[in-house]
Write a structure and sequence with these properties.
By secondary structure, this protein is an alpha/beta fold. It has 12 helices and 10 strands. The protein has one domain (13-284). The chain has helices at 14-26, 31-48, 50-63, 69-88, 90-95, 98-104, 110-118, 133-143, 156-167, 181-188, 221-229, 263-280; strands spanning 105-108, 123-126, 147-150, 172-175, 192-195, 207-211, 214-218, 233-235, 238-240, 247-250. Helix 2 (31-48) crosses helix 4, helix 3 packs across helix 4 (69-88) and helix 11 crosses helix 12. The chain starts with 13 loop residues before the first helix and ends in a 24-residue tail after the last helix.
């Protein structure tokens, strides 16, 4: 039997409500100030969370073997700073008004998106796990309310707030384990889908495909959804701009000849598209996550 979900007003969540209040206060602080506060917080996190620093450095050294050990460490430092900045930006993402969002977010190649919307054709935005991906989903929904998939968190306070924030401009989110057929029907009717695919799915559900030439456990679902709904897939990374200037969302052209016809081919094509997005600014990807945790049979752990 699944464990019952506690009410968000249970006493055990008092600390969560205090943290949520702090995020609400931070939403009133200018992004320029939060950017520089994030620099200091990131440097502190590098010290107090050395295991995450080592994971980021290991990931970067695997994906960019041309970097020296010192260069990988420097890039990991900036990545952890960006992680801290995005943490401080959470209040802005969750509560900023439409007017504030439009002042701080710009979309590159928006015309690519508009041609599908104007034609009444559905599409899938492939949103890699960049640090600012949640902002991308919220802002895209302001322009074009669509559908997306999310994974419920154990903390019902933050789960409730996150869900409200992501849906406040009209998007509909479906929990990953729920029946997704209504979402597929919406896509086929012409609705856009903001899809987050590239976390480690574990050995049971993964196919292995190269990611920066490292065999990587990869979700195979994107090709199946694209085929089922007969819609194009457009890579859509979101970048943090320097100095607290805001964010940039990039809409890429549709992946050519996708789906490929095999789960392995689809996974490889997707990973290649994500690589292209990362190379523009490697400091913005979610490197503190153990992306290569699940290994092919017979391979030892990368993180030992």
């Amino acid at each position: 039997m699944p464990r019952p979900v506690r009410s968000p007003f249970h006493i055990r969540y008092l600390g969560s409500w205090i943290a949520l209040g702090l995020l609400r206060l931070l939403s009133l602080v200018p992004l320029q100030i939060l950017f520089h506060l994030g620099t200091g917080l990131g440097d502190l996190l590098r010290i107090v969370l050395p295991s995450r620093r080592r994971v980021a450095e290991r990931n970067l050294s695997l994906c960019f073997p041309e970097l020296s050990e010192r260069e990988a460490a420097t890039l990991a430092r900036e990545n952890i700073r960006n992680t801290a900045r995005m943490l401080l930006y959470t209040g802005f993402v969750w509560w900023a008004s439409e007017e504030k969002l439009k002042k701080r977010v710009k979309i590159r190649n928006e015309a690519v998106l508009r041609q599908f919307e104007d034609g009444g054709k559905g599409f899938i935005l492939l949103a890699p796990h960049f640090l600012a991906l949640e902002l991308g989903g919220v802002f895209i929904s302001l322009k074009s309310p669509g559908v997306s998939v999310y994974q419920r968190t154990r903390n019902s306070v933050f789960d409730r707030s996150m869900l409200r924030a992501r849906q406040r401009f009209g998007s509909i989110l479906y929990e990953r384990k729920d029946d997704l057929r209504p979402m597929f029907k919406a896509i086929r009717r012409g609705t856009g889908c903001y899809y987050l695919p590239d976390q480690d799915p574990g050995p049971r559900r993964a196919v292995f495909a190269p990611f920066f030439e490292v065999p990587t456990a990869t979700w195979p679902a994107l090709g199946r959804i694209a085929k089922l709904c007969a819609v194009p897939v457009l890579p859509c990374p979101t970048y943090i701009l320097p100095g607290g200037a805001g964010f940039e969302i990039v809409i890429e052209k549709p992946l050519p000849n996708f789906p490929t016809g095999t789960p392995e081919g689809d996974a490889q094509r997707m990973n290649s598209a994500i690589e292209d997005c990362i190379r523009r600014d490697p400091s913005q990807y979610f490197w503190v996550h153990k992306r290569f945790k699940t290994r092919p049979p017979g391979e030892t752990s990368i993180y030992d």
